Fold:
Amino acid sequence: MFDVFGIYLHPIKSTAKSQEILSWKKLASTKTCYKKIFAKSDLIGNPTYMEAILSKVWSDTSKPPDQHVAWAISVIQTILNPKNSDIKITEDIVKYQLSINIVSICNITCKNILKINEILYKNRKK
Structure:
């Protein structure tokens, strides 16, 4: 995450005290990074920041399970979320965001399956 956002995101230690974490999350740069998680980056190929982070977690040749992707996204969202005073990740802290992300990934998968079915149906008629 820090590598992808680079100079836009000031580093913070996972051992930081609550007040340090709150100050870090109130920084304009941290808030901007949180808002840009799914925005196109200025990196080569213009992936979103989240795509760039995920590509650093998994190699181009690996296909992680959707649940792992949802977990990784949830971790980034939780760490950067200015409304959350934590940067340490526990099940209790991340489970709500994880449930949202799993549903989102399932919805995307369903939409892709419907598109494939439409294509197959149209090609069958030809």
Summary: Residues 2-125 form one domain. The chain has a mean pLDDT of 85. Residues 38 and 48 are 5 Å apart (CA to CA).
